[in-house]
Structure formats: C-alpha cells, structure tokens
Design a protein that fits this description.
mainly beta, SH3 type barrels, five-stranded antiparallel sheet, 5 strands, globular
C-alpha cells in the first residue's frame, strides 16, 4: 500500500529541508517536526527573499503558507 505524503515527509525529520512559501520567500532549516496540517517546525532556519537573507533560528511555519517542501539532493530519508 502506498505511503501518504505526511509519512514521506516525516522520514525527513532531523534533516535539512527548504520550504517555498506562498509569498515567494524560501526558508531552509533542520526539520524538527510537523503535524497533519503540515505546520512545520524548523531549527536553525534561514529566510531568503529577493537577494537578502537572514537567520531566524527556530520557528513554526503554518502549513497553509507552504507551497513546496524540498529535501536537498543526496538527503537520505530515515527508514521506518
């Protein structure tokens, strides 16, 4: 039986991921956790928008603002 999207993303916990937000910003950080609404908790996060970037630290991103969640190539999802 195929895995649902939440199960796939949960395998990326403790790895660096990038989030593309609805307003065009990109936030990268270590994925600490998420819930069924795809609210995401990142640690050591950095925001990039229009040639500027800033360090944000630990933050929660509301799932309704997330357009895409990307794992860098070479990331190895943990096995179940």
């Amino acid at each position: 039986m195929p895995e649902g999207p939440l199960a796939v993303v949960e395998r990326l916990i403790d790895q660096r991921v990038s989030l593309q937000l609805r307003d065009g910003r990109e936030i990268a950080g270590k994925l600490l956790g998420l819930d069924e609404h795809l609210n995401v908790v990142l640690d050591d996060a950095t925001e990039t928008a229009a040639e500027a970037s800033r360090h944000l630290g630990r933050l929660v991103v509301r799932g309704s603002n997330v357009v895409a969640l990307m794992a860098p190539s070479g990331a190895r999802p943990r096995s179940r």
